[in-house]
Design brief:
Strand order of the largest sheet: 1-3-2
Helix content: 40-55%
Shape: elongated
Mean pLDDT: 78
Number of helices: 2
Strand content: 15-25%
Order of helices and strands: EHEEH
Length: 102
């Protein structure tokens, strides 16, 4: 049986951002700028993983220094792809909500 795996690293590049800082005031340390939005996305992912029924995929999320690691694995290609796209859409939505351009 075929096994499908993906490990996705989610991080923000503060050097090239072209959006406003939303509700996260800037300061001199880029790491502090990233902590709140990264933690917000991590909490959203973790909550969704815990509340979502098992669709024959195994999903884990962890937070490291300045990035989030999302790991997805499964044996059914359709369910794997659906789970992966669902979590990527959630990350995109969370990011969009955090950084609304006015």
């Amino acid at each position: 049986m075929e096994s499908f795996k993906a490990k996705i690293f989610i991080y923000f590049d503060v050097e090239h951002h072209n959006h406003n800082t939303g509700s996260f005031p800037s300061n001199n340390d880029d790491r502090d700028i990233l902590k709140k939005p990264l933690n917000s996305i991590f909490v959203a992912l973790r909550g969704d993983i815990q509340s979502t029924p098992d669709f024959d995929t195994h999903v884990t999320v962890s937070i490291e220094n300045d990035y989030i690691i999302l790991s997805v694995s499964g044996n059914n290609m359709s369910k794997f792809r659906a789970s992966l796209l669902s979590f990527l859409r959630l990350v995109d939505l969370a990011y969009s909500v955090l950084y609304l351009d006015k």
